[in-house]
Design brief:
Blueprint (H helix, E strand, L loop, with lengths): L11 E3 L9 E3 L2 E5 L3 E5 L6 E6 L3 E8 L2 E6 L5 E5 L3 E3 L5 E3 L3 E4 L11 E4 L3 E2 L3 E2 L3 E4 L2 E4 L3 E3 L7 H5 L12 E2 L2 E2 L1 H11 L8 H4 L4 E2 L11 E4 L2 E7 L2 E6 L4 E6 H10 L7 E4 L1
Parallel strand pairs: 1-2
Antiparallel strand pairs: 3-6, 3-9, 4-5, 6-7, 7-8, 10-13, 10-17, 11-12, 14-15, 15-16, 18-19, 20-25, 21-22, 21-25, 22-23, 23-24
Length: 271
């Protein structure tokens, strides 16, 4: 079993695993991410696997010593959060569609912001006048929001909102993002299911045969890396070479990665 997708803390597991592991079994507690951005870790206070954002649904499997083991609703990813990062379920209506935005205490641009909100944060909008949306704790610029279920059409255009964002291993926001976080955020915004890590993403969609023309939005994979095809000559990716999100010539990137020991392209997928 892939530990990233297995709701088993090592002591407590969800009922769906009964018969597969030895554990105390629970039905889990429905909730949501309660902070703007949180690290989802392999162990309590351990290495970051991914990041999760405000309002994303989750199931709490176990609470222990100031941490909680959860399974995320968007992709089934499992890991540990600080206990305060998991709160009650939220009846969200909208998501942040801009690269980032802010929560304000009042509907006034001069007001000092309460907190920054990352791309993908899910909010329950109580009312909106077209300029400001009232949510729990204050107001958000309405033009930065998009109704849940209102899918976007071009994942490349979504990913380009992150151009210039710094590279961060396991990152999922404009403050720091990695290759698979960029791809997942773009595809989810377009209503397409997508797992969190590049090795998982290399199994979605259909294979594009070697030599066949690549299309905008196709995915290119190397060992441990993924990029999006912008056009026949250009890719877009968050990468550890330039340490940011940028466009790069496809042929140049393929040659550079091979020269630096990253190997050849291992898969071409169309989602």
């Amino acid at each position: 079993m892939d530990r990233r997708l297995t709701p088993f803390s090592g002591r407590v597991a969800l009922e769906c695993l009964r018969g597969a592991v030895e554990a105390e079994f629970v039905s889990g507690e429905a909730g949501a991410v309660a902070v703007a951005l949180a690290d989802l870790c392999a162990t309590p206070d351990g290495a970051r696997d991914r990041q999760v954002v405000l309002g994303e649904p989750l199931v709490v499997v176990e609470r222990r010593d100031g941490h909680c083991f959860v399974q995320m609703g968007k992709d089934g990813y499992c890991g540990w959060l600080a206990a305060g990062a998991a709160g009650p379920a939220v009846a969200a209506t909208h998501r942040v569609a801009a690269g980032a935005t802010h929560l304000y205490p009042e509907a006034r641009v001069q007001a000092r912001e309460v907190m920054a909100l990352p791309f993908g944060a899910r909010l329950a909008v109580a009312e909106s006048d077209g300029k400001w949306a009232r949510v729990a704790g204050g107001f958000v610029p309405a033009m930065h929001l998009r109704a849940l279920g209102d899918a976007e059409g071009d994942p490349v255009a979504v990913a380009e909102r992150f151009l210039g964002s710094p590279y961060l291993w396991g990152g999922n926001s404009r403050d720091g993002i990695d290759c698979s976080g960029l791809v997942q955020g773009a595809l989810l915004a377009c209503g397409r299911d997508c797992p969190g890590d590049s090795d998982q993403q290399a199994r979605i969609g259909e294979e594009v045969p070697e030599g066949a023309a690549l299309r905008r939005g196709d995915l290119l994979f190397w060992k441990g890396h993924v990029a999006m095809v912008v056009d026949g000559a250009t890719i877009l990716h968050a990468n550890g070479h330039s340490m940011d999100v940028r466009h790069e010539g496809m042929a140049e990137a393929i040659a550079r990665i091979a020269e630096q020991g990253g190997g050849p392209v291992t898969a071409r997928r169309r989602v």
